[in-house]
Design a protein that fits this description.
heterodimer; A: 285 residues; Immunoglobulin-like; 3 domains; five-stranded mixed sheet; B: 369 residues; alpha+beta; Nuclear Transport Factor 2, Chain: A; four-stranded antiparallel sheet; 19 strands; 43% strand
Chain lengths: 285, 369
């Protein structure tokens, strides 16, 4: 609050008094050193107020005030004020972003089912070396680097510092790299393409001592990708003893369970919202 | 005058002692100590259990040769970190079923106070007359024991490494799992509105799920907000489906115009083990005349499940979820040893139930998930 009042006071003084003079460039790029010339004589105080910082130093009125690049990292409007014994004077200038040299790349989601049209959103933000968003249009190269397949790329021009593409997931499961490139900067993200819902879920039953061993055929999605291990398959058996349900995770591609059966029984299978075939078995057979 | 004060103090002390004796149930205990009826014998034994006087309660048994004291104590104190180890017998009711001069059958309704809420248990006990007093024949349950063995378990386990705090902006994180509410049904109960339905984890990673609901009136104003709390299986493995139930006490369905559902999912480390089989599920009428869904739980893994929690979804002939009920099982699930369960179904719902589906949630003290 104290700083704000001081800054406001200095600005008010600068607006009313105009004895010494101060001149700077109208525009410079972030991180570049500049020099601000002053007129007048005697000891003075120099203020530099930027979008993210404010500095104060003692200077000699009439000499040039050097401003190092570190003080001009943040793009935006800067106000330079010189306060001498005869009053304050000010000038303003703009710091524009430097050369585009960094990318912020957001890829969503990190896991996507195979064969999902426009399922992957890729957004690139263009920055200079000082984390300033580069608003001038810049060409960005987006690339998809699938495992065991040829790279695919597309060029987009950024608008207001942002460029994006939407990508459909492949039909084959596995990790795919998605990259964006500008100048010397490139960023890569990995998206895991996972099997979609189970397709053509089928079970078979065989006798195992006093019980029935019920197991699925290798569980795959409609593109032939193996459903990942750990995915739950629900078995339900109904017979004269009542109903039996077991949620079994897939292990090495199949899910299996041993169930006791009394008399004729009906066994069904499901995984998530997908249902499979039904089996009629009999303990007396 | 000198004697009046000491006499007054003695009289007051005696009155206070008698009052305290009556208030602490001394008269009742004295009456029951005689155990001159079957109900009194059961009451006496249960009140001694309630006050953790297991030696005295054990002495009240007619069949001490059939059951050792440790096993008898375990029936009330629990074992293997089961729910009863976090419970105490709060109160009990005793009612006679049948009685002759020499033996009788008595039903005891036990109310436990547990870490997860009240737990009720019904026990039918035989009582025998031995000389002048009645003694309880405690039902001996021959619990199966698994021989020492190694059970190999090689189910999947998921661990999560999230983005670090020092990572740059825009660095990729692992997304939350995709879950979906597959059904929702609002039901008017006598004292509440209940939302029931099912939610599925559509993702290929485990999810910690919670379902919340906000009721809105015709003007879009919020009437109430609740979550499924423990009426859901929170940890869902890939493609696993769980029922959920959200209760809105003192609410009327006519007041509600809209329901805003919200399924929240977090990516969590989890294990696909243990697998619990739910056998012999049947809708029955229990001895108290209530409709219940009964069955047996069988832990297929080698790990002890300390507190099993059964959640059942009931469907009508159109496949719509019409009710969800749940219940905690007092016993721990030892590997390969079946443990029975029963969950209540309201009678007006039970008549419309076409089929049902049970899932088991589990709380394990040594869980690594």
């Amino acid at each position: 609050m104290k700083t704000l009042i001081t800054v406001m006071g200095v600005l008010a003084l600068a607006a009313t008094a105009a004895a010494s003079e101060i001149h700077g460039p109208a525009q410079t790029s972030a991180g570049s050193a500049i020099s601000i010339s002053t007129s007048g004589s005697g000891e003075a105080t120099f203020y530099l107020i930027g979008p993210a910082s404010a500095t104060k130093q003692k200077v000699q009125a009439g000499s040039d005030v050097p401003i190092v690049g570190d003080q001009l990292d943040n793009a935006g409007r800067y106000v330079a004020i010189l306060c001498a014994s005869d009053g304050c004077t000010s000038t303003s200038f703009f710091v524009t972003p430097g050369t585009a040299n960094r990318l912020g790349l957001l890829v969503h989601p990190s896991r996507v089912p195979v064969g999902k049209a426009n399922g992957i959103s890729t957004v690139a933000f263009v920055f200079d070396n000082f984390h300033n968003l580069v608003l001038k249009p810049q060409p960005i190269k987006f690339s998809i680097l699938p495992k065991n397949a040829k790279e695919v790329s597309a060029n987009r021009e950024s608008q207001n510092g942002v460029a994006w593409i939407r990508i459909s997931s492949a039909n084959k499961e596995g990790a795919t790299k998605i990259g964006a490139e500008i100048g010397h900067a490139d960023e890569v993200r990995v998206v895991q393409q996972v099997a979609a819902d189970a397709c053509n879920l089928r079970i078979k039953a065989s006798r195992a001592k006093e019980n029935f061993l019920v197991e699925t055929e290798p569980v795959r999605d409609c593109s032939g990708n193996a459903i990942p291990d750990g995915t739950v398959v629900s078995f339900t058996k109904s017979d004269s003893a009542g109903k039996t349900t077991v949620d079994v995770p897939i292990k090495r591609g199949i899910a299996k369970v041993e169930m006791p059966v009394q008399g004729p029984a009906r066994i069904t299978v499901a995984s998530g919202v997908v249902t499979g075939n039904e089996l009629e078995v009999s303990a007396s057979r | 005058m000198k004697r009046v004060l000491p006499i007054f103090i003695v009289v007051v002390t005696a009155v206070l002692l008698i009052t305290a004796w009556f208030q602490s149930g001394g008269a009742q205990r004295r009456e029951m100590r005689s155990a001159n009826s079957p109900e009194q014998a059961v009451r006496l034994m249960l009140s001694q259990i309630q006050s953790h006087n297991y030696d005295a309660a054990y002495d009240r048994l007619a069949n001490r040769t059939d059951i050792d004291k440790t096993s008898f104590m375990r029936e009330f104190q629990g074992s293997y970190g089961s729910l009863l180890t976090y419970a105490s017998l709060e109160k009990f009711e005793v009612s006679p079923l049948h009685s002759t001069d020499s033996d009788a059958n008595v039903r005891a309704h036990l109310h436990y106070s547990t870490a997860v809420g009240p737990l009720d248990d019904n026990r039918d006990m035989k009582v025998q007359k031995s000389g002048d007093i009645w003694k309880v024949v405690w039902p001996v349950s021959q619990s199966a024991k698994l021989p020492p063995q190694v059970i190999p378990v090689n189910y999947l386990r998921w661990d999560v490494i999230s983005r670090g705090a020092s990572d740059d902006w825009g660095v990729q994180n692992v997304d939350s799992p995709q879950v979906r509410i597959v059904s929702m049904n609002a039901i008017q109960r006598p004292d509440s509105v209940v939302l029931v339905g099912e939610v599925v984890n559509e993702d290929s990673v485990p999810a910690y799920v919670n379902v919340g609901a906000t009721l809105l009136d015709a003007g879009g104003k919020e009437l109430a907000q609740e979550s499924s709390f423990d009426k859901i299986s929170h940890v869902l493995l890939p493609k696993q489906v769980t029922p959920y139930r959200i209760d809105f006490p003192s609410m009327r369905l006519e007041k509600i115009k809209n329901v805003r559902m919200d399924a929240k999912a977090l990516l969590v480390a989890a294990s696909a083990d243990p697998v619990i089989e739910i056998n012999q599920q049947k809708m029955e009428t229990d001895p108290l005349g209530k409709k219940v869904l009964r069955g047996d739980l069988l832990n297929q893994s080698g790990q002890i499940v300390n507190i099993p929690h059964v959640i059942a979804a009931y469907y009508d002939s159109n496949g719509k979820v019409i009710w969800v009920s749940d219940g905690y099982v007092a016993q721990a699930l030892l590997p390969q040893i079946p443990v029975s369960f029963a969950v209540d179904v309201p009678p007006d719902i039970a008549k419309n139930v076409q089929t049902y589906r049970v899932v088991v949630n589990h709380y394990d003290t040594n869980s690594q998930s």
